Amino acid sequence: MSNLSANTLPTKVRIVEVGARDGLQNESAVSTQDKVSLINALAAAGISYIEAGAFVSPKWVPQMADSRDVISALTLPDTNLTALTPNLKGAQAAHEVGIKEFAIFTAASESFCQKNINCSIEQSIARFADVMEFAKQHNIRVRGYVSCVLGCPYEGDINPQQVLKVSQMLLELGCYEISLGDTIGVGTANKVDELLDVLLAHIDKSLLAVHFHDTYGQALTNIYTALNRGIATVDSAVAGLGGCPYAKGASGNVATEDVVYLLQGLGIEHGIDLERLAKAGWAICTALNKQPVSKVSLALKNQIANQ
Fold this sequence. Notes:
This protein has 307 residues and is α/β, with parallel strands linked by helices. It contains 13 helices and eight strands. It has an eight-stranded parallel β-sheet with strand order 1-8-7-6-5-4-3-2. Helix 2 packs antiparallel against helix 12, helix 8 packs across helix 9 and helix 9 packs parallel to helix 10.
């Protein structure tokens, strides 16, 4: 296992905000205007990378059925808007509304792949060939997501060598970055370290991002572990939007407010206004009729209320 040392922390971290897609697709439906307002508020808070929607079948993900309308209503020239594009049809639709970065996804677990997209890992990657070709023709970057890197609801523990294999396949396909997803939030610091021991022996740290869910309350610890290995891109969702479909009632994505507070405490540059970010989270939570999951957001809310 690695020897964690503060001097390996990155000086700057890029936050990829996934609340408007990965978060909201696991929540009750909100209006198109609520989504537009959320993304505009996130951009105003200083977030420059925002996953704005998913071009997937509305039959399977009804919460994302209005992604075209949401993105068409945005005017954010300084914000990198990305969208999930699992097939050529989705890629073409995303391109039509000006998306400059696609996201594709597979899993490190064969069982998860079969149950979620009805094919093997290799078949899922083969399906992306035409998306990659289309992206290349139109000078669009593609980010690869790997689900279940630290555990699977069907298979349990996942071998880090399997994660390495799938990550390398996506890089060879042409992805500029691999986002490592702890989809069910079962990872712990030592598991993160063991995974990165394997990956960093073969893949440069600049090509890796982390996407941790907080089902068991370990996401911030896991992010800190990854930061200490030099990982400088972190996915998170404002207000901790999203749930874990495999653990009823459990929280989903780690909250962006909590990650930003962690980064501030470590003296790592991030470019985000924490109070404005929290207010963006409060607004979407009002639309959802729920409380933010973020501890930092709730603390700020109490602090402002008592001023």
